[in-house]
Amino acid sequence: MEDGFVGLRHILTIVFLSGFAGLMVAPVITDVTVAAVCSGPDDSCSLAVYLTGFQQVAIGLGTMVMMPVIGNLSDRYGIKAILTLPMCLSILPPVILGYRRDTNFFYLYYIIKILTALVCEGAVDCLAFAYVAENIHDRTRISAFSILGGTKTISALCGTLVARFLPIALIFQVSAISFLVGLVYMRVFLKERLNNDDDGEDHHHQDDHNSNDITMLAEPILNDTTIKRVVFIKKQSSLKDMISLMKTSTIFVQVLVVTFFSSFSDSGMQSAFLYFLKARFGFDKNQFADLMMLITIVGSITQLFILPRFASVIGERKLLSTGLLMEVINMAIVSISWAPWVSRWKLRT
């Protein structure tokens, strides 16, 4: 039997490889997009911003529908089986740009990216958090979530560092190989459940699953609800059950509202901010990578060493409030970059 954080080493490795492969392309995709759809490499055409914005809207609306479906399928067939699908599909987009990056291949990548992201975007992270929630209980679960988030941030740091020194073509090729390695590693090493090594004991497995459901019902999101227990024991919940959950759990709705506005602000900034830096300050792949590394270094230290300690001391509510306050401060600082005096200061320096 594998218990505690040691048993999570395989899912942490998978999250690292997936994050490493996916976030490696972040510093370079702006240059590739501008070169493919604009008349010149330094052109500040708005088409690149519009394409990126439309892509994020399409992916966001699609994942809003697909994530509950993926969650239900993982309850029915297991996290490991469903995790295979997004990790397979994630290989396709970097393979296309790793082969060629002209206009035609970029638009092919653009379409394939939207279609695959409907299943892949956030799926690995969601299933990884579900895996942790299913196998780690009590108050240590929050620390496990922090470690999982820190692992994702470290993967972003490593991916950005590699992208800083590799040429563009190799970046997409290495990304595709990393996705493939993560897929093979997951299929070989990941166990469906840490506390049930004997797959032949189906009845015992079902009893453990039901007891875990009862434990989950005692969590803060659901502890004041009158939801029927049968909703969560069924292998596949219906849309009616999800609506019932939203109607009967005020805290759950509040979490959805907070998540929506937080994601909305992040997506709105990301769709235009990198293109703004390129158009006004002439940023390229290396400078994007330097900026992202600074952000991820701070995030890695915070999530791995600071948040686990604060989580057990100040509690979840105050920790969430602190995180939202930091996002507000971050957005306020970023908004200054649009001011004309910033551009004049850049010209003088």
From TrEMBL:
Which terms are listed as keywords in the entry?
Membrane, Transmembrane, Transmembrane helix, Transport
Main localization of the protein? membrane
The record describes its membrane topology as:
Multi-pass membrane protein
Q: Name one GO cellular component term.
A: membrane
- Positions of transmembrane segments: 12-35, 47-70, 77-96, 108-132, 144-162, 168-186, 251-276, 288-307, 319-341
Task: Give an example GO molecular function.
Answer: transmembrane transporter activity
In which compartments does the protein localize? Membrane
Q: Which InterPro entries match?
A: MFS (IPR011701), MFS_trans_sf (IPR036259)
Q: Name one Pfam family in it.
A: MFS_1
Q: What is this protein called?
A: Major facilitator superfamily (MFS) profile domain-containing protein
- Source organism per UniProt: Eutrema salsugineum
